[in-house]
Amino acid sequence: MVKHVILWQLKEEFTDAQKAEIKAGIKAGLEGLAGQIPGLIDIKVIVDGLASSNADVMLDSSFEDAASLKGYSVHPSHVAVADSKVRPYTAKRVCMDYEV
User: What is the pLDDT of residue 54?
Assistant: First the structure.
């Protein structure tokens, strides 16, 4: 199994209310991919971090194998969510993929 974890920081230009709406959109969009992508075992988006956090959104996902993760990265449903709900609003992205 392969874990795919991403942390994002939203752009500073957004108000707190806008950030809450953006985070809800990211969560709904990414979690909505469950059952649509071959090899995607689990997908969770965390948007309510503690005040000590320096990231706004975390994606925690699991795949059957590295090939499934690669397929996810180019899958049209994932690309559509990334292009409409994530990329326009994020300033920084950190990713870690690892085998379990």
Answer: 96
73 contacts 38 by C-beta, under 8 angstroms: no
Below-50 pLDDT ranges, the chain: none
Which is it for the CA torsion 26, 33, 38, 1, positive or negative? positive
Distances (CA, A) of 49 to 76, 80, 92: 29, 26, 16
Q: Provide CB contacts within 8 A for 24, sequence distance 6+.
A: 47
**Chain length of the chain:** 100
Task: Of 55, 94, 61, give the one whose Cα is nearest residue 78.
Answer: 61
